[in-house]
Protein 1
Amino acid sequence: SYELTQPPSVSVSPGQMARITCSGDELPRQYAYWYQQKPGQAPLLVIYKDTERPSGIPERFSGSSSGTTVTLTINGVQAEDEADYYCQSADTNATHLEVIFGGGTRLTVL
Amino acid sequence: QLQLQESGPGLVKPSQTLSLTCTVSGGSISDGGNYWSWIRQHPGKGLEWIGFIYDSGDTHYNPSLKSRATISTDTSKNQFSLKLTSVIAADTAVYYCARDKAKRYCTGGRCYDPPGFGFDPWGRGTLVTVSS
């Protein structure tokens, strides 16, 4: 398998843009997914298949992909966006299927 | 809408078997195209995928668990379960159940149904402590 690497922390002021990156060798060939987790809560899917946003997720959340790096962007960060964010992808071949999570990024809204 | 709820003992002794159940409501576990999944989170740490079971009964597990995990379904109860054998203190974690959906693609005359929509929804999680 391979690893997904995220920065441990990102800090932004309210109203600013936050970018959280996730790097992994298989990301050019595998979709990435992003989860938001607030303290004491289960993770919540905010981006799937690199760029798709589930219904009910605010438009300020977006995803992009370039080579071995995917990025979660939050435009106009709000205080309620303070949370841990995890990327997720997969390692697959004809007989093997494994899900991989990044180590998580703590987003602090200053 | 689909909802998941974990249940099981909150305390397990070392070397014993951890057994958890996830009850599915708002949908049927027999509905096609779903990967019924277990994921855990050690205290203060990140997410770790344990494994999942697909409609066909095919299962996939995290290799790091070294064959200690078994996931199964009980369609009569609309539930799926996790058993983790020979537990140690390092298995202390919040355990989540979740669902991913298959995304079919065909190539070379064959079709495949890998998971492809992300884990959604999740259960609220249940803390399991391994201690004597």
Protein 2
Amino acid sequence: AQSVTQPDIHITVSEGASLELRCNYSYGATPYLFWYVQSPGQGLQLLLKYFSGDTLVQGIKGFEAEFKRSQSSFNLRKPSVHWSDAAEYFCAVVTSSSSASKIIFGSGTRLSIRP
Amino acid sequence: GAGVSQSPRYKVAKRGQDVALRCDPISGHVSLFWYQQALGQGPEFLTYFQNEAQLDKSGLPSDRFFAERPEGSVSTLKIQRTQQEDSAVYLCASQLTQRDTQYFGPGTRLTVL
């Protein structure tokens, strides 16, 4: 069965420091992979997605992610975090069938920013 | 343009009450999804519509959960005889076509006392 693992429940980084959030997936075929961000009281916002092609994907707000098939990973990175990046981050994979593309989410990583 | 909207944003129900949660998708979006997000967890798939047809309801946790989208636009998720374990945020998402991004609404936070 398809699954997504985010091993870090909570991460705290200093403002201006670099960030890497880990994500591992289990999926037999070529996955469609996503990172979403959820701020308190807000809906899920798509940061970036990978369908095929270049394995380094650029997203909004200065985020990027790299698909590594050999490691079944899709880690999210940002070179310098801002206080406004504090939120919950979800890695996700789409299970594509002929009639649906339902998303399977990881359990999330909560990011806190130290002033 | 307008995004996905959901109402109410917050709902408190006494155990045993029925509730109805509404989702207004982005105009023209064919696909509509419902997800349930328990506290501290990622969202979990409940059900999926393509236009008015409910093509997948494999994620509905019990027969107390029922969803409809009669005219292929607005959708309602109904929970009968609510239980405390139903307390969660219910998210709706719409999608233009299968390969497109799913756009999420702000969710309805349901608390069952």
